[in-house]
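User: I'm putting together notes for a lab meeting next week and I want to include a structural view of one of the chains we've been expressing. I don't have a solved structure, so I'd like a prediction I can at least talk through. The sequence is below, exactly as it appears in our construct file.
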Amino acid sequence: MSLSLLFWATVVAAFISFWWRSDKIKHGALAHVSRYCKQQNLQLLDQTLVLRGVWLVRNEKGSLIFRRKYSFEFTSTGEVRYHGRVVLYGASLQRMDLEAYIIPDDDSIY
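Assistant: Thanks for the context. Below is the predicted structure for the 110-residue chain, given as structure tokens.
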């Protein structure tokens, strides 16, 4: 086996591993967002998160981890779409931001 083949096999394996782990982290973030929307009586639209960026940052221990930022859309009344963002450090939820939205008078909107 040549050294070049071994190198490229390692690169491909690392890429597949990164993609696999990122997909698991995205599903975990989607579960956080979904649970939060349900608690706040909001409807998560399209049941999707859109990756807005991945950066290497240092955590509080000084280790390098990936910081991922996702965006999503939700509604409070069923009429207007609002935007939200979620930030993860590694697999841990760091922050969730939602646009200001209308709080409906009636709980049976949907």
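A couple of points you could mention at the meeting. The longest strand covers residues 43-58. Residues 3-98 form one domain.

User: Perfect, that's what I needed.
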